[in-house]
Amino acid sequence: MSKPSPRSDRAYRALRQAIIEQALLPGAKLPEDEIGEHFAMSRTLARSTLARLAAEGLVDAPVRRTATVARPGLEEARDVFEVRRALEREAVALVVRRWRPDFGAVLEGHVREEEAARARRDDRVSIRLAGEFHTLLAGLSGNKVLERALGELVTRCSLILALYGRPHSSECAVSEHSEIIAALRRQDIETAVRLMDTHVGSVEQRALLNQLQGTEVALGTILSRYGEDDGALNVVAMTPSGRKARGGAA
């Protein structure tokens, strides 16, 4: 497979982050011409960028129709959380068995980033960091297949919560992540697995149907906040009809 062009890669990273941070919400239209114009690239490159996102389950890109941010159904949402909870339990068990003191430093450093985002009341960054805690933990498991699978499930959960979730509680996420780290440090596998299962279960419980409301925001306005770098930025979320809304975190 050929390496993506720098512009295509920048567009991919910007769109992916905007989706994960719920600035672009499920069902939002992603026209190739507008994306190409925004990132100064051809429609062919825009199409390949959307194909990369579609391969991750973040975008629906039907032939000869405008691509949209994916909209997982409720049945799929239940299936996703069922599999995610099983993999999260296994990831925690593997991390305990491989535990090293530097793992704790890595995870606690991430939690400090979450605390800083909460202090700034930066909901977009809080949502992204909450999910990244789980992919970071999976990376410490030493199992690349599990890491990749769980990473895809975490991003899928971000879409589900954007559609159906209650507003994100960064305070709960930070405190629960800290409790999990404490159990990992003690190498208490039973407690760590139980805490993780309870934590992901509480995320699942927030996935309740929520009417999206708000005012119109253009795609270009959202992408202008994401195209320059990989840093998180506080932006208004865009719904399928171009309206802003609140969501949860994974």
TrEMBL record:
Sequence ranges assigned to domain HTH gntR-type in this UniProt record: 5-72
Keywords, comma-separated and alphabetical: DNA-binding, Transcription, Transcription regulation
SUPFAM superfamilies given in the database record: GntR ligand-binding domain-like, Winged helix' DNA-binding domain
GO molecular function, one term: DNA binding
Coiled coil (residue ranges): none
Entry protein name: GntR family transcriptional regulator
Species for this entry: Lichenibacterium ramalinae
